[in-house]
Amino acid sequence: MLMTDIGWAIRGLKYYGQKVHRRGWRDKRKYLWFKPPVKIQADWCKDPKLKKLAEGNGGSIDGLGTICMYLEVDGVPTILTGWHPTPCDLLAEDWEEVKE
Asked: What is the dihedral sign for C-alpha 56, 62, 64, 70?
């Protein structure tokens, strides 16, 4: 389903839980999804700095929602947390939903 502009893509991510990508991206396996806000518990944390922050905040800390990207780096499945669009992404009209 063609979503057209970035506004449609963001609504699909945030409100409908869709995965989206651009037809113009060279890597056709690359896509985005929305990771909603979460309360991060200290005992979940493997990162010592994050664990210390959560412990210092009574055992948990709020994590804001973010857009994540799935891509492959040298053939290895990789996740980018906190994706930022390029100017080309913002102006593109080739956004579409990724079907499973």
From this structure: positive
Task: Please name every residue paired with 96 in a beta bridge, in sequence order, or none if there are none.
Answer: 2, 21
**Tokens 């037809």, residue located:** 23
Which pair of tokens denotes residue 10? 């963001």
- DSSP character string of 68-90: EEEEEETTEEEEEES----HHHH
Burial of 72 (C-beta count, 10 Å sphere; 0-12/13-18/19+): exposed
Instruction: Judge contact between 6 and 85, C-beta under 8 A.
Output: yes
Q: For every one of its 100 residues, what pLDDT tens digit does the chain have, with 9 covering 90 and above?
A: 555 899 999 999 999 999 999 999 988 899 999 999 999 999 999 999 999 999 999 999 999 999 999 999 999 999 999 999 999 999 999 999 998 7
* CA–CA distance, 46 with 2 (Å, rounded to integer): 39
pTM, to two decimals: 0.85
